[in-house]
Amino acid sequence: MPGARLHWFLPTSGDNRGLVGAGQGVPTSVRAGLDETVTHGFRAPDIDYLAQVARTAEQLGFEGVLTPTGTFCEDAWLTTAALIRETTRLKFLVAFRPGVVNPVLAAQMAATYQRISGGRLMLNVVTGGEPREQARFGDTAAKEVRYARTEEFLAVVRGTWSQAPFDFDGDHFRVEGAMVSGGIDPVPDVYFGGSSGPAGPVAAKHADVYLTWGEPPELVAEKIAWMRELARAEGRTLRFGLRVHTLSRDTSEAAWAHAQTLLDGLDPATVAGAQEALRASESTGQQRMLALRDGRTRFDSARELEVSPNLWTGVGLVRGGAGTALVGSHDEVAARLADYHAVGVDEFILSGYPHVEEAYWFAEGVMPRLAALGVTGAGAATGAREPVAAGR
Fold it and tell me: What is the pLDDT at residue 32?
């Protein structure tokens, strides 16, 4: 098994030391008017701060950064394009929704991006699972229709890149003689996530990397097995990526003490409002995140939110999307990532609050241990290893 790739996150909705505020994934109804958006160290997503995060990620050895999409954040294409000249080798995983941009235009944008960046684009195609958010962009299609449209969208994008002049006549898109001036080199990897039945076949046909959120390793293994079988039926193979937060410290006790601080900073009314909004999501992945806590919303101890060794669901009390964090000593967090790598995860998209400081904690504490375990690097190990117990 080749070494795992490590990516960080670009907080284009702002950053701070807590779990609420204007941060990515916090429901709009909860974010609006929150005191944390202007106090308590909130960091606006201006270009200087985002450049600091990007340069930090590059300096510390991360391969790329994921940039989210939606009305809660700055536009991913424009923001990352502005950061190309702020970095030299960092790749940008640009998230976007296929329902709000023409596929030939997206193919052209990607080709231009590759030329001006020297091949540093990766694409995260987000079909979307929040009806109100989709409607803000004029997209009121049903979930099944959105996935069918996404499949056609990716067929047109790939056809435009590789079969120009490309013709396509589908239910959602019709193009004649599609092409990209100058071609595209290299073709960017397509990252795609989705836990529902309609999502799997789309990923199997068109994705390079299938993404999933941080569930316990045995559940991630089940999804990987599902997707491998679907890809095999298409004569393809996939890589697999895990999106999860990290909170690692020199000792397990220090890490859990910080998790307790994050939990203590949450107002019960804020948690209740966030959970009500998240339960309305159409996203199967979001419902799986909520299910990890069995419906509970009140907790006194951070350790009550540990659903698998070192896997903490506290983030998901107020944030949608990736709602779990790996909490523990550097050894423990490295061991848990090794567990995911052992079941087939090839790439990790990580984050922590705030994103500059947590990048240093991870890079200085966890990265060397991942190399020692053979998770990263060309000689990644595939044999059995002694487990590292979760600290108590």
Answer: 47
